[in-house]
Amino acid sequence: MQYWLYLCKIAKQLVVFALVSLVLSACTTPHQPQAINTLKKATPIVANQGAAASASSSDDERDYYDTTGTVASQEDIDELLGVTDMEAVVLSPEDLAKFGDVWERVRAGFKLNNVDNERIAAQRIWFTKRQDYINRMTARASHYLYHTVTEAEKAGVPTELALLPVIESSYDPFATSPAQAAGMWQFIPGTGKIFGLRQTWWYDGRRDVLESTRAAYKFLTQLYNKFGSWELALAAYNWGPGNVQRAIDKNTAAGLPTDYWSLTMPAETMAYVPRFLAVAQIVKNPAAFNVSLKPIVNQPHFRETYAKNQVDLSAAAKLAGITTKELYQLNPGYMRWATNPDGPHRLLVPINTIETFEEQLASLPPPERYVTVQKRYKVKKGDTLYRIAAKFDTTPAALKRLNGALVGKKGRVPVGKMLVISKVRTLVGGETVDTDQLVNPAAERVAMLEKAEKQEAQKEKENAKDDKKLANKKDKSDDNDSKSFHKVRAGDTLYSIAKKYDVTVKELADWNNLKVKNGLKTGKKLVIFQNDHDDTRVAKAEKKSKKDKDIADDKTSRKEKRLAKEKRSKKEKDSVKRISYEVKRGDTLYSISQRYNVSVSQIKTWNKASKHIKPGQDLVLYLAKG
Protein backbone atom coordinates (compact mmCIF):
# COMPACT_ATOMS: atom_id res chain seq x y z
CA MET A 1 0.00 0.00 0.00
CA GLN A 2 2.81 2.36 0.93
CA TYR A 3 4.40 1.48 -2.36
CA TRP A 4 1.26 2.52 -4.25
CA LEU A 5 0.95 5.69 -2.18
CA TYR A 6 4.56 6.47 -3.04
CA LEU A 7 3.89 5.94 -6.76
CA CYS A 8 0.79 8.16 -6.59
CA LYS A 9 2.81 10.87 -4.89
CA ILE A 10 5.49 10.67 -7.58
CA ALA A 11 2.87 10.75 -10.33
CA LYS A 12 1.23 13.81 -8.78
CA GLN A 13 4.59 15.61 -8.65
CA LEU A 14 5.25 14.77 -12.29
CA VAL A 15 1.86 16.16 -13.33
CA VAL A 16 2.48 19.41 -11.40
CA PHE A 17 5.97 19.69 -12.91
CA ALA A 18 4.57 19.17 -16.41
CA LEU A 19 1.91 21.83 -15.90
CA VAL A 20 4.45 24.35 -14.55
CA SER A 21 6.78 23.61 -17.47
CA LEU A 22 3.94 24.14 -19.93
CA VAL A 23 3.02 27.50 -18.37
CA LEU A 24 6.63 28.64 -18.34
CA SER A 25 7.02 27.53 -21.95
CA ALA A 26 3.98 29.55 -22.96
CA CYS A 27 5.35 32.63 -21.17
CA THR A 28 8.88 32.46 -22.49
CA THR A 29 8.22 31.36 -26.10
CA PRO A 30 5.31 33.43 -27.39
CA HIS A 31 6.18 32.75 -31.07
CA GLN A 32 6.36 28.95 -30.73
CA PRO A 33 4.69 27.51 -33.85
CA GLN A 34 3.32 24.47 -31.96
CA ALA A 35 0.98 26.74 -30.02
CA ILE A 36 -0.65 27.84 -33.24
CA ASN A 37 -1.33 24.28 -34.32
CA THR A 38 -3.99 23.96 -31.61
CA LEU A 39 -6.24 26.23 -33.70
CA LYS A 40 -9.13 24.71 -35.56
CA LYS A 41 -8.74 23.62 -39.18
CA ALA A 42 -9.89 25.65 -42.16
CA THR A 43 -13.63 25.61 -42.72
CA PRO A 44 -15.71 26.86 -45.64
CA ILE A 45 -16.26 30.60 -45.39
CA VAL A 46 -19.81 31.78 -44.77
CA ALA A 47 -21.07 34.96 -46.40
CA ASN A 48 -20.40 37.97 -44.16
CA GLN A 49 -18.67 35.74 -41.61
CA GLY A 50 -15.55 37.83 -42.10
CA ALA A 51 -17.53 41.03 -41.74
CA ALA A 52 -18.87 39.82 -38.43
CA ALA A 53 -15.37 38.93 -37.31
CA SER A 54 -14.19 42.34 -38.43
CA ALA A 55 -17.04 44.11 -36.69
CA SER A 56 -16.71 42.23 -33.41
CA SER A 57 -12.93 41.76 -33.37
CA SER A 58 -12.93 40.83 -29.70
CA ASP A 59 -9.99 42.04 -27.65
CA ASP A 60 -9.44 38.50 -26.34
CA GLU A 61 -9.15 37.10 -29.86
CA ARG A 62 -6.84 39.91 -31.04
CA ASP A 63 -4.61 39.61 -27.98
CA TYR A 64 -4.38 35.85 -28.40
CA TYR A 65 -3.23 36.09 -31.99
CA ASP A 66 -0.80 38.89 -31.21
CA THR A 67 0.91 36.78 -28.54
CA THR A 68 1.09 33.69 -30.72
CA GLY A 69 2.79 35.61 -33.48
CA THR A 70 0.21 34.99 -36.19
CA VAL A 71 -0.39 38.70 -36.73
CA ALA A 72 2.78 40.43 -37.87
CA SER A 73 2.26 44.09 -38.73
CA GLN A 74 2.32 44.60 -42.50
CA GLU A 75 3.39 48.18 -41.75
CA ASP A 76 6.46 46.84 -39.92
CA ILE A 77 7.22 44.63 -42.91
CA ASP A 78 6.86 47.60 -45.28
CA GLU A 79 9.19 49.69 -43.12
CA LEU A 80 11.71 46.85 -43.13
CA LEU A 81 11.55 46.71 -46.93
CA GLY A 82 11.74 50.48 -47.32
CA VAL A 83 8.43 50.66 -49.20
CA THR A 84 7.76 54.11 -50.65
CA ASP A 85 4.54 55.77 -51.77
CA MET A 86 3.60 56.38 -55.41
CA GLU A 87 0.94 58.50 -57.03
CA ALA A 88 -1.88 56.42 -58.48
CA VAL A 89 -2.29 56.22 -62.24
CA VAL A 90 -4.70 58.97 -63.28
CA LEU A 91 -8.19 57.48 -63.53
CA SER A 92 -10.35 58.46 -66.49
CA PRO A 93 -14.09 57.96 -65.77
CA GLU A 94 -14.68 57.49 -69.51
CA ASP A 95 -12.06 54.71 -69.71
CA LEU A 96 -13.46 53.09 -66.56
CA ALA A 97 -16.94 53.07 -68.09
CA LYS A 98 -15.59 51.70 -71.38
CA PHE A 99 -13.10 49.07 -70.18
CA GLY A 100 -14.26 48.27 -66.66
CA ASP A 101 -12.39 47.77 -63.38
CA VAL A 102 -9.40 45.41 -63.27
CA TRP A 103 -10.44 44.30 -59.75
CA GLU A 104 -13.47 42.60 -61.34
CA ARG A 105 -11.16 40.72 -63.66
CA VAL A 106 -9.03 39.64 -60.70
CA ARG A 107 -12.10 38.25 -58.90
CA ALA A 108 -13.26 36.39 -62.02
CA GLY A 109 -10.18 34.18 -62.00
CA PHE A 110 -10.22 33.18 -58.30
CA LYS A 111 -9.68 29.42 -57.91
CA LEU A 112 -8.44 28.85 -54.36
CA ASN A 113 -10.60 27.09 -51.77
CA ASN A 114 -13.08 29.47 -50.15
CA VAL A 115 -12.09 28.70 -46.54
CA ASP A 116 -11.84 30.61 -43.29
CA ASN A 117 -10.42 30.11 -39.81
CA GLU A 118 -9.22 32.16 -36.87
CA ARG A 119 -5.77 32.64 -38.36
CA ILE A 120 -7.21 34.12 -41.55
CA ALA A 121 -9.73 36.21 -39.60
CA ALA A 122 -6.98 37.69 -37.43
CA GLN A 123 -5.05 38.80 -40.52
CA ARG A 124 -8.22 40.12 -42.13
CA ILE A 125 -8.97 42.27 -39.07
CA TRP A 126 -5.56 43.94 -39.43
CA PHE A 127 -6.28 45.04 -43.02
CA THR A 128 -9.91 46.04 -42.46
CA LYS A 129 -8.83 48.52 -39.79
CA ARG A 130 -6.34 50.24 -42.11
CA GLN A 131 -8.14 51.81 -45.06
CA ASP A 132 -5.34 54.37 -45.50
CA TYR A 133 -2.79 51.58 -45.87
CA ILE A 134 -5.00 49.89 -48.49
CA ASN A 135 -5.26 53.19 -50.41
CA ARG A 136 -1.47 53.58 -50.54
CA MET A 137 -1.00 49.98 -51.64
CA THR A 138 -3.68 50.37 -54.33
CA ALA A 139 -1.94 53.49 -55.67
CA ARG A 140 1.24 51.47 -56.20
CA ALA A 141 -0.67 48.51 -57.64
CA SER A 142 -2.40 50.76 -60.19
CA HIS A 143 0.86 50.83 -62.17
CA TYR A 144 1.36 47.06 -62.33
CA LEU A 145 -1.83 45.09 -61.49
CA TYR A 146 -3.15 44.89 -65.05
CA HIS A 147 0.11 43.23 -66.08
CA THR A 148 0.30 40.78 -63.16
CA VAL A 149 -3.33 39.67 -63.73
CA THR A 150 -2.76 39.28 -67.48
CA GLU A 151 0.32 37.14 -66.88
CA ALA A 152 -1.53 35.01 -64.30
CA GLU A 153 -4.20 34.26 -66.90
CA LYS A 154 -1.54 33.38 -69.49
CA ALA A 155 0.24 31.09 -67.01
CA GLY A 156 -3.03 29.36 -66.08
CA VAL A 157 -2.65 30.07 -62.37
CA PRO A 158 -5.31 31.40 -59.97
CA THR A 159 -5.59 35.17 -60.31
CA GLU A 160 -5.37 35.39 -56.52
CA LEU A 161 -1.62 35.03 -57.10
CA ALA A 162 -1.61 38.52 -58.66
CA LEU A 163 -2.22 39.69 -55.08
CA LEU A 164 0.92 38.04 -53.70
CA PRO A 165 2.99 41.25 -54.18
CA VAL A 166 0.61 42.90 -51.69
CA ILE A 167 2.10 40.87 -48.83
CA GLU A 168 5.55 40.44 -50.36
CA SER A 169 6.36 44.09 -51.10
CA SER A 170 3.14 46.09 -50.87
CA TYR A 171 3.41 46.23 -54.67
CA ASP A 172 6.67 48.21 -54.61
CA PRO A 173 9.23 46.96 -57.20
CA PHE A 174 11.96 48.95 -55.41
CA ALA A 175 11.47 47.08 -52.10
CA THR A 176 14.61 45.41 -50.72
CA SER A 177 14.76 43.28 -47.57
CA PRO A 178 17.69 42.91 -45.14
CA ALA A 179 18.04 39.36 -46.53
CA GLN A 180 18.71 40.94 -49.98
CA ALA A 181 15.36 39.88 -51.42
CA ALA A 182 14.34 42.46 -54.02
CA GLY A 183 11.47 43.58 -56.19
CA MET A 184 7.69 43.16 -56.13
CA TRP A 185 8.04 39.39 -55.76
CA GLN A 186 10.99 39.53 -53.33
CA PHE A 187 13.38 37.09 -55.02
CA ILE A 188 16.62 36.42 -53.18
CA PRO A 189 19.73 36.51 -55.44
CA GLY A 190 20.17 32.72 -55.71
CA THR A 191 16.55 31.91 -56.56
CA GLY A 192 16.46 34.82 -58.98
CA LYS A 193 19.40 33.39 -60.92
CA ILE A 194 17.77 29.93 -61.04
CA PHE A 195 14.76 31.48 -62.76
CA GLY A 196 16.79 33.52 -65.23
CA LEU A 197 16.76 36.89 -63.48
CA ARG A 198 20.09 38.49 -64.40
CA GLN A 199 21.80 40.62 -61.76
CA THR A 200 24.62 42.88 -62.95
CA TRP A 201 26.11 46.27 -62.12
CA TRP A 202 23.68 47.82 -64.60
CA TYR A 203 20.55 45.73 -64.18
CA ASP A 204 18.67 43.59 -61.64
CA GLY A 205 16.02 41.33 -63.15
CA ARG A 206 14.46 40.78 -59.73
CA ARG A 207 13.22 44.37 -59.88
CA ASP A 208 12.18 44.16 -63.53
CA VAL A 209 8.36 44.20 -63.60
CA LEU A 210 8.05 41.87 -66.62
CA GLU A 211 10.83 39.41 -65.86
CA SER A 212 10.16 39.04 -62.13
CA THR A 213 6.43 38.41 -62.73
CA ARG A 214 7.24 35.73 -65.30
CA ALA A 215 9.71 34.09 -62.92
CA ALA A 216 7.32 34.24 -59.94
CA TYR A 217 4.50 32.43 -61.75
CA LYS A 218 6.92 29.84 -63.09
CA PHE A 219 8.30 29.22 -59.59
CA LEU A 220 4.81 29.02 -58.02
CA THR A 221 3.62 26.62 -60.73
CA GLN A 222 6.58 24.33 -60.06
CA LEU A 223 5.83 24.41 -56.33
CA TYR A 224 2.16 23.61 -56.94
CA ASN A 225 3.09 20.68 -59.17
CA LYS A 226 5.41 19.40 -56.44
CA PHE A 227 3.06 19.73 -53.44
CA GLY A 228 -0.38 19.56 -55.08
CA SER A 229 -1.72 22.45 -53.01
CA TRP A 230 -1.59 26.22 -53.49
CA GLU A 231 -1.38 26.74 -49.72
CA LEU A 232 1.70 24.50 -49.56
CA ALA A 233 3.11 26.13 -52.71
CA LEU A 234 2.79 29.56 -51.06
CA ALA A 235 4.38 28.26 -47.84
CA ALA A 236 7.28 26.89 -49.91
CA TYR A 237 7.62 30.24 -51.73
CA ASN A 238 8.08 31.88 -48.34
CA TRP A 239 9.99 29.21 -46.38
CA GLY A 240 11.64 27.18 -49.14
CA PRO A 241 10.50 23.89 -50.75
CA GLY A 242 13.07 21.82 -48.87
CA ASN A 243 11.81 23.02 -45.50
CA VAL A 244 8.17 22.38 -46.39
CA GLN A 245 9.02 18.88 -47.61
CA ARG A 246 10.80 18.09 -44.34
CA ALA A 247 7.78 19.31 -42.36
CA ILE A 248 5.53 17.04 -44.47
CA ASP A 249 7.88 14.08 -43.96
CA LYS A 250 7.87 14.68 -40.21
CA ASN A 251 4.06 14.63 -40.05
CA THR A 252 3.90 11.59 -42.32
CA ALA A 253 6.26 9.69 -40.01
CA ALA A 254 4.12 10.68 -37.01
CA GLY A 255 0.90 9.63 -38.74
CA LEU A 256 -0.37 13.24 -38.83
CA PRO A 257 -2.14 15.12 -41.66
CA THR A 258 0.17 16.84 -44.15
CA ASP A 259 -1.98 19.74 -45.33
CA TYR A 260 -0.70 23.30 -44.76
CA TRP A 261 -2.86 23.88 -41.67
CA SER A 262 -1.44 20.79 -39.92
CA LEU A 263 2.28 21.45 -40.42
CA THR A 264 4.65 22.94 -37.87
CA MET A 265 6.41 25.92 -39.44
CA PRO A 266 8.08 29.18 -38.33
CA ALA A 267 5.74 31.95 -37.15
CA GLU A 268 6.40 33.99 -40.29
CA THR A 269 5.25 31.17 -42.59
CA MET A 270 2.34 30.35 -40.26
CA ALA A 271 1.14 33.94 -40.82
CA TYR A 272 2.11 34.18 -44.50
CA VAL A 273 -0.61 32.07 -46.11
CA PRO A 274 -3.42 33.35 -43.82
CA ARG A 275 -2.38 36.92 -44.64
CA PHE A 276 -2.48 36.16 -48.37
CA LEU A 277 -5.91 34.49 -48.10
CA ALA A 278 -7.18 37.41 -45.99
CA VAL A 279 -6.20 39.86 -48.75
CA ALA A 280 -7.87 37.66 -51.39
CA GLN A 281 -11.10 37.51 -49.35
CA ILE A 282 -11.15 41.30 -48.92
CA VAL A 283 -10.59 41.83 -52.66
CA LYS A 284 -13.33 39.31 -53.49
CA ASN A 285 -15.94 41.12 -51.40
CA PRO A 286 -14.62 44.44 -50.04
CA ALA A 287 -18.07 45.73 -49.09
CA ALA A 288 -18.60 42.74 -46.78
CA PHE A 289 -15.57 43.86 -44.78
CA ASN A 290 -16.30 47.61 -44.90
CA VAL A 291 -13.29 48.18 -47.15
CA SER A 292 -13.09 50.40 -50.23
CA LEU A 293 -10.89 49.46 -53.19
CA LYS A 294 -10.25 52.37 -55.53
CA PRO A 295 -10.97 51.29 -59.13
CA ILE A 296 -8.16 50.65 -61.60
CA VAL A 297 -9.00 50.77 -65.32
CA ASN A 298 -8.86 47.37 -67.00
CA GLN A 299 -6.40 48.60 -69.59
CA PRO A 300 -2.59 48.30 -69.84
CA HIS A 301 -0.73 51.22 -68.28
CA PHE A 302 2.51 50.63 -70.19
CA ARG A 303 3.94 48.99 -73.29
CA GLU A 304 7.35 47.62 -74.25
CA THR A 305 9.58 49.32 -76.76
CA TYR A 306 13.16 48.67 -77.83
CA ALA A 307 16.10 50.90 -78.75
CA LYS A 308 19.02 49.80 -80.91
CA ASN A 309 21.65 51.24 -78.60
CA GLN A 310 22.16 51.98 -74.94
CA VAL A 311 19.73 54.68 -73.80
CA ASP A 312 20.21 57.30 -71.12
CA LEU A 313 17.05 57.07 -68.99
CA SER A 314 16.81 60.82 -68.45
CA ALA A 315 16.98 61.33 -72.22
CA ALA A 316 14.38 58.59 -72.72
CA ALA A 317 12.04 60.29 -70.24
CA LYS A 318 12.44 63.53 -72.18
CA LEU A 319 11.56 61.76 -75.44
CA ALA A 320 8.46 60.25 -73.84
CA GLY A 321 7.41 63.56 -72.30
CA ILE A 322 7.38 62.17 -68.75
CA THR A 323 9.55 62.67 -65.67
CA THR A 324 12.61 60.55 -64.98
CA LYS A 325 10.89 59.34 -61.80
CA GLU A 326 7.93 58.02 -63.81
CA LEU A 327 10.24 56.18 -66.19
CA TYR A 328 12.14 54.56 -63.30
CA GLN A 329 8.86 53.41 -61.72
CA LEU A 330 8.14 51.41 -64.86
CA ASN A 331 11.76 50.31 -65.34
CA PRO A 332 13.03 49.63 -61.80
CA GLY A 333 15.34 46.89 -63.05
CA TYR A 334 17.83 49.47 -64.34
CA MET A 335 20.22 50.23 -61.51
CA ARG A 336 22.13 53.07 -63.21
CA TRP A 337 21.45 56.10 -65.38
CA ALA A 338 21.17 54.08 -68.58
CA THR A 339 20.17 50.71 -69.99
CA ASN A 340 22.70 47.88 -69.93
CA PRO A 341 25.45 48.45 -72.57
CA ASP A 342 25.13 44.79 -73.59
CA GLY A 343 21.36 45.09 -74.02
CA PRO A 344 18.60 44.38 -74.41
CA HIS A 345 17.62 48.04 -74.44
CA ARG A 346 13.99 47.42 -73.57
CA LEU A 347 11.96 50.18 -71.98
CA LEU A 348 8.45 50.25 -70.54
CA VAL A 349 6.74 53.52 -71.43
CA PRO A 350 3.24 54.76 -70.49
CA ILE A 351 0.86 53.65 -73.21
CA ASN A 352 -0.46 57.18 -73.75
CA THR A 353 3.06 58.42 -74.66
CA ILE A 354 4.34 55.39 -76.59
CA GLU A 355 3.71 56.83 -80.09
CA THR A 356 5.46 60.09 -79.25
CA PHE A 357 8.36 58.19 -77.74
CA GLU A 358 8.83 55.85 -80.72
CA GLU A 359 8.63 58.74 -83.19
CA GLN A 360 11.25 60.67 -81.23
CA LEU A 361 13.37 57.53 -80.93
CA ALA A 362 13.22 56.95 -84.69
CA SER A 363 14.41 60.51 -85.33
CA LEU A 364 17.53 60.12 -83.20
CA PRO A 365 20.90 60.62 -84.97
CA PRO A 366 22.59 57.67 -86.70
CA PRO A 367 25.06 55.40 -84.87
CA GLU A 368 28.05 57.65 -85.61
CA ARG A 369 26.50 60.16 -83.21
CA TYR A 370 27.11 57.68 -80.41
CA VAL A 371 30.40 57.99 -78.54
CA THR A 372 32.12 55.72 -76.08
CA VAL A 373 32.26 57.23 -72.61
CA GLN A 374 34.59 56.00 -69.91
CA LYS A 375 34.23 56.59 -66.21
CA ARG A 376 37.70 56.60 -64.64
CA TYR A 377 39.18 56.45 -61.17
CA LYS A 378 42.70 57.42 -60.07
CA VAL A 379 44.19 54.62 -57.96
CA LYS A 380 45.22 55.75 -54.48
CA LYS A 381 47.66 54.28 -52.00
CA GLY A 382 46.13 51.28 -50.25
CA ASP A 383 43.62 50.59 -53.03
CA THR A 384 43.10 47.05 -54.24
CA LEU A 385 41.02 45.83 -57.15
CA TYR A 386 38.48 44.39 -54.73
CA ARG A 387 38.16 47.63 -52.75
CA ILE A 388 37.73 49.67 -55.91
CA ALA A 389 35.13 47.20 -57.21
CA ALA A 390 33.20 47.44 -53.94
CA LYS A 391 33.43 51.26 -53.98
CA PHE A 392 31.85 51.48 -57.42
CA ASP A 393 29.44 48.55 -57.00
CA THR A 394 31.04 46.48 -59.74
CA THR A 395 33.16 43.32 -59.79
CA PRO A 396 36.93 42.69 -59.94
CA ALA A 397 36.35 40.57 -63.06
CA ALA A 398 34.65 43.49 -64.82
CA LEU A 399 37.53 45.83 -63.90
CA LYS A 400 40.07 43.30 -65.20
CA ARG A 401 38.17 43.00 -68.47
CA LEU A 402 38.07 46.78 -68.92
CA ASN A 403 41.68 47.47 -67.95
CA GLY A 404 43.56 44.49 -69.38
CA ALA A 405 47.29 44.46 -68.65
CA LEU A 406 47.00 47.43 -66.29
CA VAL A 407 45.72 45.02 -63.65
CA GLY A 408 48.58 42.87 -62.43
CA LYS A 409 48.66 39.42 -60.91
CA LYS A 410 46.51 38.92 -57.82
CA GLY A 411 44.53 42.03 -58.72
CA ARG A 412 47.33 44.52 -58.13
CA VAL A 413 46.84 48.00 -59.54
CA PRO A 414 49.58 50.67 -59.74
CA VAL A 415 49.07 53.76 -57.58
CA GLY A 416 48.41 56.92 -59.61
CA LYS A 417 47.12 55.12 -62.70
CA MET A 418 43.67 55.88 -64.11
CA LEU A 419 41.47 52.80 -63.94
CA VAL A 420 38.45 52.48 -66.25
CA ILE A 421 35.41 51.81 -64.08
CA SER A 422 32.78 51.68 -66.82
CA LYS A 423 32.67 52.12 -70.57
CA VAL A 424 29.37 52.94 -72.23
CA ARG A 425 28.13 53.96 -75.65
CA THR A 426 26.06 57.11 -75.24
CA LEU A 427 24.06 59.29 -77.57
CA VAL A 428 25.27 62.84 -78.11
CA GLY A 429 22.06 64.77 -78.67
CA GLY A 430 22.88 67.00 -81.63
CA GLU A 431 25.72 68.95 -80.02
CA THR A 432 29.43 68.42 -79.57
CA VAL A 433 30.08 67.56 -75.95
CA ASP A 434 33.28 66.65 -74.16
CA THR A 435 33.58 63.16 -72.71
CA ASP A 436 33.72 64.68 -69.23
CA GLN A 437 30.44 66.44 -69.89
CA LEU A 438 28.82 63.18 -70.91
CA VAL A 439 29.94 61.46 -67.76
CA ASN A 440 28.89 64.49 -65.71
CA PRO A 441 25.83 66.02 -67.42
CA ALA A 442 24.05 69.34 -66.98
CA ALA A 443 24.34 69.69 -63.23
CA GLU A 444 28.01 68.81 -63.43
CA ARG A 445 28.53 71.34 -66.22
CA VAL A 446 26.97 74.10 -64.12
CA ALA A 447 29.31 73.24 -61.28
CA MET A 448 32.23 73.32 -63.72
CA LEU A 449 31.16 76.76 -64.98
CA GLU A 450 30.88 78.11 -61.47
CA LYS A 451 34.34 76.77 -60.76
CA ALA A 452 35.65 78.36 -63.97
CA GLU A 453 34.16 81.71 -62.98
CA LYS A 454 35.90 81.57 -59.62
CA GLN A 455 39.16 80.64 -61.33
CA GLU A 456 38.75 83.54 -63.77
CA ALA A 457 38.13 85.98 -60.92
CA GLN A 458 41.16 84.64 -59.09
CA LYS A 459 43.23 84.92 -62.27
CA GLU A 460 42.22 88.57 -62.71
CA LYS A 461 43.13 89.23 -59.10
CA GLU A 462 46.53 87.65 -59.68
CA ASN A 463 47.00 89.67 -62.88
CA ALA A 464 46.30 92.89 -60.96
CA LYS A 465 48.94 91.89 -58.43
CA ASP A 466 51.33 91.07 -61.27
CA ASP A 467 50.74 94.50 -62.86
CA LYS A 468 51.60 96.15 -59.56
CA LYS A 469 54.75 94.05 -59.20
CA LEU A 470 55.69 94.78 -62.79
CA ALA A 471 55.39 98.51 -62.13
CA ASN A 472 57.78 98.13 -59.22
CA LYS A 473 60.13 96.12 -61.40
CA LYS A 474 60.05 98.84 -64.02
CA ASP A 475 61.24 101.37 -61.48
CA LYS A 476 64.13 99.11 -60.60
CA SER A 477 65.10 98.36 -64.19
CA ASP A 478 67.40 100.41 -66.34
CA ASP A 479 65.73 103.49 -67.85
CA ASN A 480 67.01 102.38 -71.23
CA ASP A 481 65.25 98.99 -70.96
CA SER A 482 61.88 98.47 -72.63
CA LYS A 483 59.17 96.27 -71.16
CA SER A 484 57.28 93.65 -73.14
CA PHE A 485 55.02 90.75 -72.22
CA HIS A 486 55.03 87.06 -73.01
CA LYS A 487 51.94 84.88 -72.47
CA VAL A 488 53.01 81.40 -71.38
CA ARG A 489 51.90 78.65 -73.77
CA ALA A 490 51.83 74.89 -73.32
CA GLY A 491 55.41 73.56 -73.46
CA ASP A 492 57.06 76.87 -72.50
CA THR A 493 59.87 76.84 -69.93
CA LEU A 494 61.90 79.65 -68.34
CA TYR A 495 64.87 78.50 -70.40
CA SER A 496 63.04 78.53 -73.76
CA ILE A 497 61.50 81.96 -73.07
CA ALA A 498 64.83 83.43 -71.87
CA LYS A 499 66.54 82.12 -74.99
CA LYS A 500 63.84 83.59 -77.22
CA TYR A 501 64.25 87.09 -75.74
CA ASP A 502 68.03 86.86 -75.33
CA VAL A 503 67.96 87.27 -71.55
CA THR A 504 69.15 85.01 -68.74
CA VAL A 505 66.90 82.57 -66.88
CA LYS A 506 67.79 84.30 -63.58
CA GLU A 507 66.78 87.72 -64.94
CA LEU A 508 63.50 86.36 -66.22
CA ALA A 509 62.80 84.69 -62.87
CA ASP A 510 63.70 87.84 -60.88
CA TRP A 511 61.55 90.12 -63.02
CA ASN A 512 58.52 87.89 -62.44
CA ASN A 513 59.10 86.79 -58.83
CA LEU A 514 59.54 83.18 -59.91
CA LYS A 515 61.69 80.38 -58.62
CA VAL A 516 63.84 78.78 -61.28
CA LYS A 517 62.96 75.24 -60.15
CA ASN A 518 59.20 75.87 -60.35
CA GLY A 519 57.17 75.29 -63.49
CA LEU A 520 55.11 77.83 -65.41
CA LYS A 521 51.32 78.10 -65.54
CA THR A 522 49.86 78.17 -69.03
CA GLY A 523 48.24 81.56 -69.68
CA LYS A 524 50.38 83.47 -67.20
CA LYS A 525 51.85 86.76 -68.48
CA LEU A 526 55.59 87.28 -67.97
CA VAL A 527 57.28 90.66 -68.15
CA ILE A 528 60.43 90.96 -70.25
CA PHE A 529 62.92 93.87 -70.04
CA GLN A 530 65.22 94.32 -73.03
CA ASN A 531 68.06 96.80 -73.60
CA ASP A 532 66.94 99.67 -75.80
CA HIS A 533 70.12 101.78 -76.42
CA ASP A 534 69.82 101.61 -80.20
CA ASP A 535 66.15 102.58 -80.40
CA THR A 536 65.21 106.13 -81.23
CA ARG A 537 62.76 108.08 -79.11
CA VAL A 538 60.19 107.79 -81.89
CA ALA A 539 60.59 104.03 -82.03
CA LYS A 540 60.35 103.86 -78.26
CA ALA A 541 57.21 105.99 -78.35
CA GLU A 542 55.71 103.78 -81.04
CA LYS A 543 56.56 100.68 -79.01
CA LYS A 544 55.07 102.23 -75.89
CA SER A 545 51.95 103.24 -77.80
CA LYS A 546 51.59 99.77 -79.29
CA LYS A 547 52.24 98.22 -75.88
CA ASP A 548 49.64 100.42 -74.23
CA LYS A 549 47.19 99.49 -76.98
CA ASP A 550 47.98 95.79 -76.53
CA ILE A 551 47.39 96.13 -72.80
CA ALA A 552 44.13 98.00 -73.39
CA ASP A 553 43.06 95.42 -75.98
CA ASP A 554 44.00 92.66 -73.58
CA LYS A 555 41.89 94.23 -70.81
CA THR A 556 38.98 94.69 -73.24
CA SER A 557 39.38 91.11 -74.43
CA ARG A 558 39.38 89.83 -70.86
CA LYS A 559 36.24 91.81 -70.07
CA GLU A 560 34.50 90.51 -73.20
CA LYS A 561 35.52 86.96 -72.36
CA ARG A 562 34.25 87.36 -68.82
CA LEU A 563 30.90 88.73 -70.02
CA ALA A 564 30.59 85.95 -72.60
CA LYS A 565 31.40 83.37 -69.94
CA GLU A 566 28.80 84.87 -67.60
CA LYS A 567 26.25 84.73 -70.41
CA ARG A 568 27.09 81.08 -71.16
CA SER A 569 26.94 80.29 -67.46
CA LYS A 570 23.47 81.84 -67.12
CA LYS A 571 22.28 79.94 -70.19
CA GLU A 572 23.60 76.66 -68.79
CA LYS A 573 22.00 77.35 -65.40
CA ASP A 574 18.67 78.11 -67.08
CA SER A 575 18.81 74.66 -68.72
CA VAL A 576 18.92 72.91 -65.36
CA LYS A 577 15.90 71.82 -63.34
CA ARG A 578 15.58 71.15 -59.63
CA ILE A 579 13.97 67.86 -58.56
CA SER A 580 13.27 66.18 -55.24
CA TYR A 581 14.26 62.53 -54.70
CA GLU A 582 12.93 60.44 -51.81
CA VAL A 583 15.59 58.08 -50.43
CA LYS A 584 14.58 54.40 -50.57
CA ARG A 585 15.72 51.43 -48.54
CA GLY A 586 19.15 50.30 -49.76
CA ASP A 587 19.99 53.65 -51.40
CA THR A 588 23.43 55.17 -50.92
CA LEU A 589 24.73 58.54 -52.06
CA TYR A 590 26.80 56.68 -54.64
CA SER A 591 23.88 54.64 -56.02
CA ILE A 592 21.75 57.81 -56.31
CA SER A 593 24.61 59.66 -58.01
CA GLN A 594 24.97 56.80 -60.52
CA ARG A 595 21.23 56.74 -61.22
CA TYR A 596 21.06 60.47 -61.97
CA ASN A 597 24.60 60.74 -63.35
CA VAL A 598 25.80 63.37 -60.89
CA SER A 599 28.61 63.23 -58.36
CA VAL A 600 28.38 62.30 -54.68
CA SER A 601 30.05 65.57 -53.72
CA GLN A 602 27.39 67.51 -55.62
CA ILE A 603 24.57 65.73 -53.78
CA LYS A 604 26.31 66.52 -50.48
CA THR A 605 26.73 70.19 -51.47
CA TRP A 606 23.17 70.60 -52.68
CA ASN A 607 21.76 69.06 -49.51
CA LYS A 608 24.43 70.00 -46.94
CA ALA A 609 24.42 66.29 -46.15
CA SER A 610 26.90 63.94 -44.57
CA LYS A 611 27.58 60.52 -46.05
CA HIS A 612 24.67 59.07 -44.04
CA ILE A 613 21.17 59.14 -45.53
CA LYS A 614 18.02 57.34 -44.43
CA PRO A 615 14.86 56.04 -46.15
CA GLY A 616 12.18 58.70 -46.52
CA GLN A 617 14.68 61.57 -46.59
CA ASP A 618 14.17 64.07 -49.43
CA LEU A 619 17.23 65.07 -51.46
CA VAL A 620 17.48 68.00 -53.87
CA LEU A 621 19.05 67.20 -57.27
CA TYR A 622 19.79 69.47 -60.25
CA LEU A 623 19.37 67.81 -63.66
CA ALA A 624 19.07 68.80 -67.30
CA LYS A 625 15.68 70.22 -68.19
CA GLY A 626 13.51 68.04 -70.31
Automatic annotation (TrEMBL):
Basic residues bias: start-end ranges = 558-568
Q: Where is this region: Disordered?
A: 452-485, 539-577
A Pfam family of the record is LysM
Record-annotated LysM domain positions: 375-421, 484-528, 579-626
Q: Does the keyword Signal apply?
A: yes
Species: Agitococcus lubricus
* Family note: Belongs to the transglycosylase Slt family.
Gene3D superfamilies the UniProt entry points to = 1.10.530.10, LysM domain
The record's annotation in InterPro entries points to: LysM, LysM_dom_sf, Lysozyme-like_dom_sf, Transglyc_AS, Transglycosylase_SLT_dom_1
Q: Where is the composition biased (Basic and acidic residues)?
A: 452-484, 539-557
Q: Please give the Gene Ontology molecular function terms for this protein.
A: lytic endotransglycosylase activity
What PROSITE patterns does the record tag this protein with? Answer: LYSM, TRANSGLYCOSYLASE
Q: What is this protein called?
A: Membrane-bound lytic murein transglycosylase D
Q: Which residues form the signal peptide?
A: 1-26
Q: Name one GO cellular component term.
A: membrane
Please name the GO terms of the biological process aspect recorded for this protein, alphabetically.
Answer: peptidoglycan metabolic process
> Which UniProt keywords are listed?
Signal
